[in-house]
Amino acid sequence: MPGEAIPLICLDACVLLSYIDGDEDRAPTIEELFRRSRAGEIDLITSILSRVEVAFDSAEKAGGALDPEVEKNIDALWISPSPIDTVELYDQIASEARALVRYAVEQGWSLKPPDAIHIATATQMQARELFTYDTALPKYATRARLSILEPYNPQEQLPGTENV
Prior knowledge:
Oligomer: single chain
Helix content: 40-55%
CATH architecture of one domain: 3-Layer(aba) Sandwich
Largest sheet: 5 strands, parallel
Radius of gyration: 16 Å
Shape: globular
Structural class: alpha/beta
Order of helices and strands: EHHEHHHEHHEHE
Number of strands: 5
Strand content: 5-15%
Low-confidence stretches: none
């Protein structure tokens, strides 16, 4: 609809790792998200932390040997015209991330600081959704006041399956 804001979607590093790994089940959805971003249909962001978390693919990790071609593919995620914008870690994000880690303890849960930073980044940037494959994160959706769910494209999601 004219006048509607372009949806802002935050990506957890695990989404980008799935893309770099070439996960057959996940890559098509991620590639479509990238296409939609390049077409101006959505805006994709991730924490600058993803540049550290996406350091190698699973084959490199398993084999203990690094492949320069994989590094080129990883670098391509960040080089213009990247479909993803990175968000610096600033004080409000750090404070919100710490509050989320403390909230997790209060609930009897566990939340790793990098995951808290991704959730806080999405919250502070007022993203509509945080896409992740980490099944432990959706329980923070109410506290973070945003949807935390697996990546999808509008034509893929069935009515009533949204996670808020």
